[in-house]
Amino acid sequence: MQKDQLFTRRRMLLAGVAALGSAGTAGAILAGDGEETVRAAAAPAPGPQARPALGPSAFRLRPLTGYGPPRTPPRKLKVREKPILRISGRGRRMVLTFDDGPHPEYTPHILDTLARHRARAMFFVCGECVVDNRELLARMAEEGHVVGNHTWTHPLLTSLGRKEIRSEMERTSDIIEDTYGDRPQWFRAPYGAWNRASFQLGAELGMEPMAWTLDTTDWMEPGTDTIVDQVESGAAPGVVVLSHDAGGDRSQTVRAIREWLPRLLDSGYHLTVPRRRV
Questions:
Q1: What start and end residues bound the annotated signal peptide (predicted)?
Q2: CA nearest neighbour of 97 among 186, 177, 225
């Protein structure tokens, strides 16, 4: 079932619980080429930073023959009490994230724009959307983007039992690995509604919890200009931007990124992704 069919219900839920994803004191994770650390969030010092060329992808899709080695058990992580809301590091670094896809109409346009400007992003995908759009995950891998887990059906996790939450997360990790070549190392709770079980199960499945700093409000379909204004007014070092490539009509998101992405890059921002764990 495509996410578009759940859009009305999501909009009502998201209006009530989106703030949960950004409440409290955030953790920050270093992105880019430095040593990966987690610490209390502090705003990095602003300053110009040259935009580097995007090198060959470190996330190449491995051939999937059906006769490969069995899945490697995920490395269990420390259980967090709050999601990561921003990144730390030198210079004007930001992370672009897209939720709810992949979508056959909107995701390719977003990938085209990112490729045109040699920028990488994170895509938090829903397992049920991957089923009919595996080629889009393959493209994400080839173009150096990071794929994260956004559950199978995009439920409100706080309304589910532990067994149901595990199924939503584990099934999605499995299909990402089968399609993308790697198990996801990042998880985002639908609607930004976290609970203790989601933190515990995410850590057991080898995933860090990532929320966001800046909500573009594109899920409300406020108009292209409003989305552009949200991004440009909220841009700052360390910010994690929330957008959507599915879950409703995302034509405004597609048009908006074509405007604000080159402007951010021209103003000295470096669009990065968190460092991949080895």
A1: 1-28
A2: 186
| pTM for the full predicted model | 0.80
Packing angle between helix 162-180 and helix 134-142, nearest 10 degrees?
60
103 is catalytic: no
Q: Which of 103, 150, 244, 270 is catalytic?
A: 244
pLDDT digit string (tens) for 173-213?
999 999 988 999 999 999 999 999 999 999 999 999 999 99
- The answer to whether the beta carbons of residues 169 and 151 sit under 8 Å apart is yes
For the stretch 217-258, pLDDT in tens is 999 999 999 999 999 999 999 999 999 999 999 999 999 999
Q: What is the pLDDT of residue 237?
A: 95
Sheet holding 38-40, edge to edge: 38-40, 27-30, 84-88
Reduced 3-state DSSP string for the chain: CCHHHHHHHHHHHHHHHHHHHHCCCCEEEEECCCCCCEEECCCCCCCCCCCCCCCCCCCCCCCCCCCCCCCCCCCCCCCCCCCEEEEECCCCEEEEEEECCCCCCCHHHHHHHHHHCCCCCEEEECHHHHCCCHHHHHHHHHCCCEEEECCCCCCCHHHCCHHHHHHHHHHHHHHHHHHHCCCCCEECCHHHCCCHHHHHHHHHCCCEEECCCEECCHHHCCCHHHHHHHHHHHCCCCEEEEEECCCCCCHHHHHHHHHHHHHHHHCCCEECCECCCC
Question: Is-catalytic flag, 215?
Answer: no
Whether 165 contacts 129, CB under 8 Å: no
Mean pLDDT across the chain: 81
